[in-house]
Structure formats: structure tokens, C-alpha cells
Amino acid sequence: VQLVESGGGTAQPGEALRLSCAASGFNFRDSYISWVRQAPGKGLQWVAGIFRDGETTLYRTSVEGRFTISRDNAKNRLYLQMNSLKSEDTALYYCSTDDRGTGRGPGTQVTVAS
Questions:
Q1: Residues 46, 34: contact at Cβ < 8 Å?
Q2: What is the tens place of the pLDDT at every residue in 46-64?
């Protein structure tokens, strides 16, 4: 399993960022994939997940309505569109093959600050 995240950066509150994850080494198109994050000094937190059909999605309450998870099975890519960012979204974001961060890559840093 290889997962490589990209697209992080610094944003002001209310702005948007789009994360991407390139997957290889496993059957991506048949796999449930999720985004998890880790804020400074805190543990891993599940953010959103998407099933292989690309239609069935799940979100933690604090991001529902602001974040959108999607996938492109032809490209083995996972995405996270993050709108209306808040300071509490600041974290290192990972894609993962489950909700616990298994197989996660190096992560991409998202910093939300005014």
C-alpha cells in the first residue's frame, strides 16, 4: 500500500483548499478510503470516508456541509474539497485504507490562520 497526499497549505478562515491522494499497490477501486487528520498534540481523528461506488460518503459532524470527499477510480485518486475552513481544521491530513489511519502516507499540512 502506498498513499501520497498533496495539496495542503496555509489558508485564512473561510477560504478553501483541495487535497489529493495518489494511491498504488492495492486494489483501490474496490476499497473503502478515508481521510484522517492529526492536529498538533492530539491523536488521529477520522474526517471522512468514501465507499468504492464513489457515491456513499460519510463525514464527521464538524466537517459535514463544508468538506466533500470524492474519488477517481480510473486515476487511483482520492480528493478532499475543504470549504469554509476554520482554525480548528489545522492539522496534518492523511488518506488511509480504513478509519484508523492504516497505511497512511506522509500527510499534507493544512494550516488555517488569519
A1: yes
A2: 999 999 999 999 999 999 9
